[in-house]
Amino acid sequence: MIKIELSVALAIYLLSGMVFIFSFWYFSEVRKRAKDLRKEEGFLWECPTCTHIYVDSKAEEISRCPLCKSLIKKVK
Ligand SMILES: [Zn+2]
């Protein structure tokens, strides 16, 4: 059997708790960032006429292509 001191056992216990909390915080942050990226993708528009890809965060249903000025309807 391995003999360890109480202080060492306590230190390991506290450290493992901290690692658990840190990893939980890290993964929740990563998930939040992925969600934000997906939200930003909703602003991406691809023009079917000139295949130009641009960002239009104001338009919700219909957007105007900045290159060929054609109107694009959202597919979703
Ligand atoms: Zn276009």
From TrEMBL:
Domain IFT121-like zinc finger: 44-71
A Pfam match: Zf_2nd_IFT121
Signal peptide boundaries: none
Subcellular location: Cytoplasm, Cytoskeleton, Cilium basal body
Keywords: Cell projection, Cilium, Cilium biogenesis/degradation, Cytoplasm, Cytoskeleton, Membrane, Repeat, Transmembrane, Transmembrane helix, WD repeat
Keyword DNA repair found: no
Descriptive protein name: IFT121-like zinc finger domain-containing protein
Species in which this protein is naturally found: bacterium (Candidatus Ratteibacteria) CG01_land_8_20_14_3_00_40_19
Source organism phylogeny: Bacteria, Candidatus Ratteibacteria
